[in-house]
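Researcher: First entry.
Model:
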Amino acid sequence: MLATLRQAARASAHLALAAVVAFLSYIFITVLLITAVCVVAVIGIWMLPETVLIIRRIAGAKRTLTARWTGRPIPEAYRPVKGPLPDRIKIAVRDPGTGKDLLWLVAQYAYGWMTLLMIPLWPVGLVVDGVWCGVLRQRAVVLPLITKLADLEAGWSATLLRPSPEALLQARVEELTTTRADAVAAHGAELRRIERDLHDGAQARLVALSMRIGLAQRAYEADPERARKLLDDALGQAEEALAELRHVVRGIHPPILTDRGLVGAVRALAGSSGLTVEVRADGLDEAVRPPAAVEAAAYFVVAEALTNVAKHSGADQAEVALTRTRRGLRVEVRDAGKGGADDHAGSGLTGMRRRVAALDGTIAVASPVGGPTVVTAELPCVW
């Protein structure tokens, strides 16, 4: 009986909040009528996008309330209302989410009163279920109806507030457009970095090498000893140029990935990080490897995350987990440092996000002040 009472009380709290939202919806009818009149009169057409934004806020509050009861989040898929007034009006009218919210609002006027049914159920339930459960030791029959009422109300709301396929597709297209722009920007920055490294490093050393060899060639007949010294200097510069070229190649695609695979490359990276790093691999081996682009992205995520641990966290230990999932590869880097990682503090997290987003992946950073910091990247791929 006590468990039934607690569940009925929780359902009643949900229904009470739903009744508040319904009451606000009823009041909002006045705003809708004023907006309709102003739009017809043209002089108040500026109110249209503002009214749509208010409807979005009300629907958003209802989504949060419903998700809290059902335990399943309800996504939003709106086009941002911004720009000059004509653009704002077009977006507000043409957005599929606007029609979906208006449909829910109209339906809310029909089923919003249903929340009030819990009021007579409480006294009846306390009497009937009190006797039925307390005296006859049977299961409650009336108070559970309050929970079913909350389930029904939440189910209808979730169905009506769920974005339409058109809205989800539109949101996905906008997301991919942004991702493509980030990928193009990241690619351009990478090309500029490679060009700068080649120009300032390897190219300068090769030019100096060519000059040394030319001087040695001229001095060979007249001063063999000086020519030999110049050739020794040229040999040193050739080795430095090769080292610069290897550094550039590692920045494009680390050769160790090709030689050892992702797990071996990450273990080598962990060994040279200056930290005590535990590397775990689940479902990955030499015979099972993700695509090269996914391996490279995962490698750079681990490298950047370990660099952040060494520079910013204050921790001397870290954990790296590489997990094969049904849809791709999960990379998780954890440390017990001071936390407080910030995308805008120059910690490299923005670069990681762009690199992962270029592969249509996601990255999440959990870093409360005081730690721990957990960086999780999900990279989709076909195995």
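Researcher: Second entry.
Model:
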Amino acid sequence: MRFLLGGYSADMGGSATGIGLLDAGGPDSPLASGPLGVGPDVVAAESPSWIARHPSLDVVYAALEGRGTVRAYRRTGDTAYAPLGAEVAVGESPCHVLALEDALIVSCYGDGGVVRVALAADGRPGAARRWTDAAAGDPASDLAAAARALRAAVGAEYADVVPYADETEPEPDAAPDSSARPSHAHQAASLPGGLVATTDTGLDLVRFWRGGREIQRLDLPAGTGPRHLRPHPSGHIYVVTEHSGEVFALAPDASGSWRLVGGAQLGAYPGDAGAELAMSRDGVFLYAGLRGSDTIATVRVRGGGEMLQPVALAECGTVWPRHHVVARDTVLVAGQRADEIVSLAIDERTGVPGRVRHRTIAPAPTALLAFPA
């Protein structure tokens, strides 16, 4: 199999120079269990920390995290891409892109923004609209959004000359608000019925949106830090938490409102930070990455989907597993701080990843995406 690789370049302390290409076994094989190798970049880009593919077009999108923008790339050859349109400013530190037929939903870690970027018929990105500000309905939010977009457009060198319209100075005699927490949007997922779910790691929220309007916000336990979520065939959503090392199960009630219905501890060590949540092809197992202890937790889905049973905690074989994907009998792990990709064989009987099967050098990898056929 082939995969596209996102990574951090020099502007964010990494050594990547664009969107990379990973071969896992034969390029045309449906399995990823063979030797690993990284080839030349498919396109130059600056810190494309997350990449997503258009649902029907031969176009991929990258969150250029350090630049505060997203950009589209059109496939021009077997393993070659070229920019499609201009960069679009979206906010501070965009870290995830959900690609829909007519729009991108971008999560910005730095300022908490959930931003919709319209797509033209050819996949070219256009106007950006910040959902979180629209939901607030506050004129001051529009000014804040404009300031954030302008800071992103001018770059880090000149960002300090743009006023921070979304920040206010506290009154001199005012006591500090210990409950104040920064918003950190982290991921968006598409659900049936035109619903979009987003996580906010800073505010411990899962938000639900339809037509650009927030229709529900679900508060998770304080300090857990919901990071990434994974829809399940049962209709449940599973959410891995960055700060508490858990997986939560969410489900809608009879009225359609989402509720927390179950969960499981992953066996995280003190100081661990949850990362990605992946799923086996049959939906029986979930795999959660833990940075710090550098492990992969295996969780079995039971009952109707509401029951989560921890199975094992296994070493991932690399350092700082920022992202991982499951390809049949193999887990591919991006070791961000080891500058490598490793593959782990999954035990068919237990569902647990075993020892490292193969590894290859890859510059500061942060995301893997299956290469289009």
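Model: Note on the second entry: DSSP finds two helices and 28 strands in the chain.
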